[in-house]
Amino acid sequence: MDNSMPVVSKMYCSSTPAALMIRRRPMVVNGGGFVVTDFSHNVVFIVDGCGILGSKGELMVKDSDGEQILFISRKGGIVQALSTRNKWNGYSMDYQGKNKLVFSLTDPKSCIAKGAPVRIHIEPKRHCNNWDFEICGSFADRNCTIIDCTGKIVAQMGKKELIESNDFYHVTVQSGCDQAFIIGVMAVLDNIHGESTRC
Question: Coiled-coil annotation: which residues (predicted)?
Answer without folding.
Answer: none
